[in-house]
Design the sequence.
């Protein structure tokens, strides 16, 4: 099941092609039996899904804790939550400048073009401008989302990675990863996989610590194969084309 699958259906088509039963939930989801056109908070969920995916959608919801409570209560005992998020709090000026230098022509205008031009005309520092923009759009920060996730799930995977390359001209995922590893820019993406905590394993904060892995040595349900069968990154471009990123 995917939260916020968008107009293009998110991962649902690829999951179904891979033999999974999959449902996407979004007010602007496509027509069809595989989709439900309403907010996740108001939806009736399939019984005990093996996995719930949220790709660049949690930072937009009204109350992430309420959404994650519903996820945790819905998942099967061995189920997983798979989250891809934007760490917008780490989008500092060096990272922004690196992106702006690699933007395509005005005809290929994206949200990054808007941020560059609006900042240039604002007369403010990047940090001041960008924080006010994020606050205006009500974006939840990655640290808050990780805290909410860790309160309900045990980390299996938590790592950072490239996020912007699909919006840039002549820039590959490897190019962005090289810049991250060289310390020139910050990682913009967070990949998180978690399993529901057992009732006796609810110690607040256990497993916290950004971009570390947990749960080694435990068997993973088959749904975790999605991590390698269906790479998460390419669909970020689809998510932005759906309009899920504020412009």
Sequence:
């Amino acid at each position: 099941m995917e939260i916020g699958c968008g107009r293009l259906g998110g991962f649902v088509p690829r999951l179904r092609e891979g033999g999974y039963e999959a449902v996407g939930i979004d007010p602007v989801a496509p027509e069809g039996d595989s989709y439900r056109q309403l907010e996740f908070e108001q939806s009736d969920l399939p019984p005990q899904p093996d996995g719930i995916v949220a790709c660049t959608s949690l930072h937009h919801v009204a109350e992430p804790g309420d959404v994650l409570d519903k996820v945790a209560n819905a998942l099967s005992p061995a189920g997983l939550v798979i989250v891809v998020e934007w760490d917008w709090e780490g989008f500092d000026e060096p990272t922004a400048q690196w992106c702006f230098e690699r933007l395509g022509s005005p005809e290929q205008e994206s949200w990054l073009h808007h941020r560059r031009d609006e900042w240039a005309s604002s007369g403010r520092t990047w940090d001041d401008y960008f924080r006010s923009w994020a606050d205006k759009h009500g974006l939840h920060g990655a640290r808050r989302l990780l805290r909410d996730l860790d309160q309900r799930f045990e980390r299996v995977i938590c790592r950072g990675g490239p996020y912007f390359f699909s919006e840039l001209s002549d820039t590959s995922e490897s190019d962005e990863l090289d810049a991250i590893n060289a310390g020139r820019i910050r990682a913009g993406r967070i990949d998180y996989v978690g399993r529901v905590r057992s009732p006796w394993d609810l110690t607040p904060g256990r497993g916290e610590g950004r971009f570390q892995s947990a749960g080694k040595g435990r068997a993973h349900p088959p749904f975790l194969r999605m991590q390698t069968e269906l790479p998460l990154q390419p669909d970020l471009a689809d998510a932005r084309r759906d309009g899920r990123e504020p412009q």
